[in-house]
């Protein structure tokens, strides 16, 4: 059985990881060499003026963005799960264990 403190610690860790995932995704989207470059490459795809090297770069950036979004979503679910478990316990002082 997990104690309230263990649940709180796990929830805090999950929230921290979720925050990191959100920050990484934000950096990717705003980064000069990644997110903005991805948008520029997408524009070239639409105008059919993409070189082979740019096409490989586009694929790599698309995969990286997908991975970051999945990571963010995974940690968001983890935070929600721990929050739900914490609320089930009641979250009040004095409860030392989940029964």
How would you summarize what this structure contains?
This protein is mainly alpha-helical and 99 residues long.
Your description of this structure?
This protein is mainly α. The chain has one domain (4-89). The chain is 78% helix and 0% strand. The protein has helices at 4-30, 35-46, 52-89. Helix 1 runs antiparallel to helix 3 and helix 2 packs across helix 3. The mean pLDDT is 76.
How do the strands and helices of this protein lay out in sequence?
Layout: H1 4-30, H2 35-46, H3 52-89
Helix pairs in contact: 1-3, 2-3
Distance from N terminus to C terminus (CA atoms, Å) equals: 7 Å
Major sheet details = none
What is the count of helical runs? 3
Low-confidence stretches: none
Order of helices and strands: HHH
From the helix content, strand content and strand pairing, which structural class follows? mainly alpha
Number of strands: 0
Number of domains: 1
What is the overall shape? rod-shaped
> What is the mean predicted local confidence, pLDDT?
76
Give structural attributes:
mainly alpha; 3 helices; 99 residues; rod-shaped
